[in-house]
Design a protein that fits this description.
alpha/beta; 24 helices; 7-stranded parallel β-sheet; binds zinc ion
Length: 803
């Protein structure tokens, strides 16, 4: 059945956090146990009805399993452990990758969700550890596992324990006690940690870890597609420091990387480690048929900024779809972007069920992260057994919980990359069962483009992970940290990239490093590793402090603090909503308070850009496409309050200082002769093209639209022409603008299509309006943007790639 659309989304009611989850689900009746509905058959009704919201639907072929034999070198205890866990025979990709690693070839496994990538690195590392124990006169063998989150490392530790191999496993993170740390240093053979702990703890205190480093045989970098942008550059520098420390203790570990399906995994893995890496990306795990649907919410009756048409929220559509599937008994996981959104989807689904099948209300829940391990286990088990049929979750679930083998997955809002989308889709279906995967667009240019261009999502190669390991603003602090670990010598420099020599020179000039005959030394009393802040950039981060409790909630990059946590800002942190009471720039503190406010804020900002150097360019006829270094100057001068539809409620001035940022940019310039008789408003056309271009850049680079910024001007002082710039929002650049330069033709063609194909008249959030515009989306000329891009692209080569 298809339920009537709900006109308005409830905004002010959020159910209280639940407790006793584990108990509740274990008592729920298991009525559907053993019965698995066919999700494709259920969904076929919507396909047959030719619902205009379903912009695309296709069924992907099943993939057969390819099994293989256990390699001869696998330790019998390890093999027995896997067999006891149900892995009777490994799949082909698992043994191929494990064989390479065993023979000391660095390898990256890049296959889908639930394809058992962990077997590929656990086999060689556990076998080597057990084998080395038996050998006389050896110092033993150790393995290091690095995950982007603590939760993932803990799950791995648990999985390793379940194998019952007797290998001494320990997690090492911010929660470890002093006793645990000491035991880990003295005895652990398999240490699970994260990049932050490597950077702040293991590497700076390497002398205390000498036993572990000297015996290090394998380094596992799990979920390595997470290391993108500036964070990716930091992790790349940490891996180089790790290799240098290992070398000092006589160890040359083999690197095994695991990644979601990404393009060119060997290149990403090689940039991350600085080593040649072989890719294993043929997935031999079985999969049933997958029905992939793309869904566009209809336009609503409400008007947004400048009267723009606004689409029904993707959350409301997700709730409708989830309700339909739950009624059919299809076990469905819905991914929603925010915690608040997940709660609303769950609540709305329950309301819809109340009207038709009230007995199903208890079988739908929201997952917001932050649960205790036993609650997570109960939830996994309830979903697996079918006691729970529908779950609305934030992305927090993506890394923290082991749920796969569902009947259907709904993704509300593009998760940033095709790799992430397919990873979420991969939660549906296991072995030979059919599965349904639905993507529901949000009201923005990229999502709208994707639901109308299925070729860019289905069957298109996933994107490469983008980061720049040579960013001098990242390499510099890590050279200081490396010098503090062991003084740097000339021979170390090539490890840190082609510019390391020049960067060390600058560090000496600025007094951070001291040159002595034996090398470069860190002589300061402070900790060198504090210079590099892995998860942020551009000066001291601003701390978020909760007014009521004084508790520190987290930090915000200095680079974005003025526009996101100014006084009066509504700020979303880990999917909770806060109101900023005060931004204290002297102490780098923002005082915040939890709020149920149902409005949003957007900063008004003046932005100036100056070209420092043009590094590369291409000519498209008279249009010049450039990549280079720019100086961006920002000043936040006020903010707007808006209701959820985007309607402006009020404007408030702010008094904040100017800030500037040296970074990488891609830009194009159009000479006057090409736009002499241009029939549209030029500034509005360039501004609209800039907004849509920022929205579409994630199509070719693994960035978020919030990672980048733009400037458009009719006469730029440095070029003397109409110019549109898109720049990396991080000091020194993060690789996104560079990727935009390389893929400029595909990127700007997609941008033109996104604007042209949008069904609005004069611009809306699905095409040329931007939620982060510092000018309140004015001036904007939608038709002019298409005409301007036609001029820009007239002589651009037509790339074969659709994305
Ligand atoms: Zn539009
Ligand atoms: Zn703007």
């Amino acid at each position: 059945m298809i339920l009537p659309k709900i006109a308005q989304w409830p905004l002010n009611h959020v159910p209280p956090a639940r407790s006793g989850l584990a108990e509740k689900w274990s008592q729920a009746p298991d009525r559907l146990a053993g019965v698995r509905p066919d999700p494709l058959m259920q969904f076929q009704r919507l396909v047959d009805a030719a619902d205009p919201r379903l912009t695309h639907y296709e069924v992907l072929d099943p993939r057969p399993a390819v099994e293989s034999e256990w390699p001869g070198w696998v330790h019998p205890v390890v093999r027995e452990g896997f067999v006891s866990q149900g892995v009777v025979r490994p799949w082909g990709h698992q043994t191929r990758a494990a064989d390479l690693a065993w023979n000391r070839t660095h390898v990256v496994v890049s296959t889908g969700t639930a394809s058992g990538k962990s077997v590929a690195y656990q086999l060689p590392s556990l076998s080597r550890i057990l084998q080395a124990r038996g050998a006389r006169g050896q110092r033993g063998a150790t393995a290091l596992y690095v995950a982007p989150t603590k939760a993932l490392a803990h799950d791995q530790a648990q999985a390793l324990g379940a194998l019952g191999t007797g290998v001494r496993v320990a997690t090492h993170d911010g929660d470890s006690t002093a006793e645990e740390r000491e035991w880990t240093r003295e005895h652990a053979e398999y240490v699970l940690t994260n990049p932050d702990m490597l950077h702040h703890s293991l590497l700076p205190r390497h002398q205390r870890w000498s036993r572990f480093f000297a015996a290090l045989e394998f380094v596992v970098i799990d979920e390595c597609h997470h290391y993108r942008g500036v964070f990716g550059a930091h992790v790349a520098a940490i891996m180089r420091r790790l290799r240098r420390i290992c070398a000092a203790y006589g160890a040359t570990p083999t690197f095994i990387l695991a990644s979601a399906t990404i393009a060119e995994p060997e290149i990403t893995a090689s940039r991350l480690t600085g080593l040649p890496v072989v890719a294993e990306s043929v997935d031999n795990s079985p999969r049933g048929r997958v029905g992939v649907g793309l869904w566009e919410p209809p336009l609503s009756a409400y008007g947004g900024e400048h009267g723009a048409p606004v689409r029904r929220s993707s959350g409301a559509e997700v709730a409708d779809l989830l309700t339909d599937l739950v009624i059919d008994g299809v076990r469905t996981l819905a991914f929603v972007r925010s915690r608040h959104g997940a709660e609303l989807v769950s609540l709305q689904t329950k309301r819809l069920l109340h009207e038709v099948s009230p007995e199903l209300i208890e079988r739908v829940a929201a997952y917001r992260g932050g649960y205790l391990p036993e609650e997570r286990r109960a939830l996994e088990e309830a979903l697996r057994s079918g006691r729970l049929i529908g779950l609305a979750a934030t992305n927090a679930l993506e890394l923290g919980i082991d749920i796969s083998g569902l009947d259907a997955v709904i993704v509300g809002g593009f998760p940033g990359t095709r790799a992430a989308l397919w990873q979420q889709f991969g939660r549906a279906g296991r072995n030979h069962t059919d599965a349904l995967a639905l993507f529901v667009a949000r009201d923005d240019p990229l999502d709208t483009y994707l639901v109308h261009h299925p070729e860019a999502l289905v069957g298109a190669p996933v994107e490469a992970v983008v980061f720049d390991p040579d960013n001098p603003y990242v390499v510099g602090p890590h050279l200081c940290a490396a010098a503090a670990e062991i003084p740097l010598t000339q021979a170390d420099l090539p490890l840190f990239g082609p510019d390391a020599g020049a960067i060390v020179g600058d560090l000496v000039d600025s007094g951070l490093l001291r040159r002595r005959p034996t090398g470069w030394f860190w002589t300061d009393r402070s900790r060198a590793s504090d210079l590099a802040d892995l998860r942020s950039t551009g000066g001291a981060p601003v701390r978020l402090v909760e007014a009521e409790t004084g508790r520190m909630l987290g930090t915000v990059d200095a680079s974005s603090a003025h526009s996101t946590v100014h006084q009066g800002a509504i700020y979303l942190h880990q999917a909770e909503t806060y109101l900023v009471e005060e931004l204290d720039l002297d102490d780098d503190v923002a005082v915040v308070r939890r709020t149920e406010a149902d409005y949003t804020t957007s900063a008004r900002e003046l932005v100036d850009i100056a070209i420092i150097t043009e590094r590369e360019h291409r000519m498209w006829g008279h249009v010049r496409l450039s990549f280079g270094v720019v100086q961006v100057t920002h000043q936040v001068v006020g903010y707007l309050t808006k209701d959820r539809s985007g309607k402006v409620l009020g404007e408030h001035p702010l008094d904040l200082p100017e800030r500037s940022l040296q970074t990488a940019a891609v830009w194009w310039t159009v000479p006057d002769l090409l736009i002499a008789d241009f029939p549209h408003d030029l500034p509005g056309s360039a501004h609209a093209a800039e907004h849509a271009g920022i929205g579409l850049l994630p199509l070719v680079a693994t960035c978020d639209r919030w990672d980048i910024g733009g400037v458009s001007t009719q006469h730029h002082p440095d070029t003397g022409m109409l110019s549109v710039f898109v720049y990396d929002g991080h000091r020194g650049g993060a690789g996104f603008a560079e990727r935009g330069f390389v893929e400029a033709e595909a990127w700007w063609r997609a941008t033109r299509s996104a604007i042209d194909e949008c069904e609005c008249e004069t611009g809306c959030p699905s095409c040329v309006q931007s939620p982060k515009c510092g000018n309140g989306n004015s001036p904007i000329d939608k038709a002019g943007a298409v005409a301007l891009l036609d001029i820009v692209l007239h002589h651009a080569p037509t790339g074969a790639s659709g994305a």
